[in-house]
């Protein structure tokens, strides 16, 4: 199905990329000049790496899916920071991908991007960091106001402290993916968003007590203590500023449900070298996310090139 071409899930492990200053500048040279300040404003090298990889993922994905040369791609951001494809070349794409959009996330070792052809998409990565200056219950308590009573009960009754922390991060991850999908910022009332699940499968959401039927969610473990969540939903739920960037916000039931029920693609592990236009595009490693246990598994029959993670 042609629509499935626009369902992309890419991830980069930045712990495996340690560029020299020259290599970093070379990678940045493939991005438009206006993107450079959003990278160089960071002082720490790890933050700069996350920023540049996030931008490279966006341009490389648009280039691969839509066939637009790097130098012709225009990516803008809403006032809330949601990236979107600029005007000028999208009209011809509407019949193929009526509502092409994408979202990025980075945390810890991983930077990722997800795209959709019809539904709006949100993506979030969280690292299961263990607090060092306070106990796990004290750390979690700082965020209690962001959860509903049901969610909070599930977190504090998850088992031992490590289980409580993991459950906390899972709820946080799916909430952030939903908020990012609709294009909202940090001001959104997370305590109005309540997630239900069966061992983190068959996930659905209620907002102010009303179930949103036109949404789907996935939660996966990336490995190395990282969780990633994807939200896929109806464009009518987007913020007004984000709606203005979308080509369509209304679909008939058949067309919308075609997009809603597209297969959720497996994450593909890429290197930074594969994101720049001059790089060879072969040798990518499919990461198959275990649907039953939510575990990413890398195929063993891999090309040897991979022996060498604001969105």
From TrEMBL:
Molecular functions per Gene Ontology: holo-[acyl-carrier-protein] synthase activity; magnesium ion binding
Coiled coil: none
Ranges for domain 4'-phosphopantetheinyl transferase N-terminal: 16-117
Keywords: Transferase
GO CC aspect terms: cytosol
InterPro entries: 4-PPantetheinyl_Trfase_dom, 4-PPantetheinyl_Trfase_dom_sf, AASDHPPT_N, P-Pant_transferase_sf
Gene3D superfamilies the UniProt entry points to: 4'-phosphopantetheinyl transferase domain
Any one biological process term the GO annotation gives: lysine biosynthetic process via aminoadipic acid
Full protein name: holo-[acyl-carrier-protein] synthase
Species name: Camellia sinensis var. sinensis
Lineage: Eukaryota, Viridiplantae, Streptophyta, Embryophyta, Tracheophyta
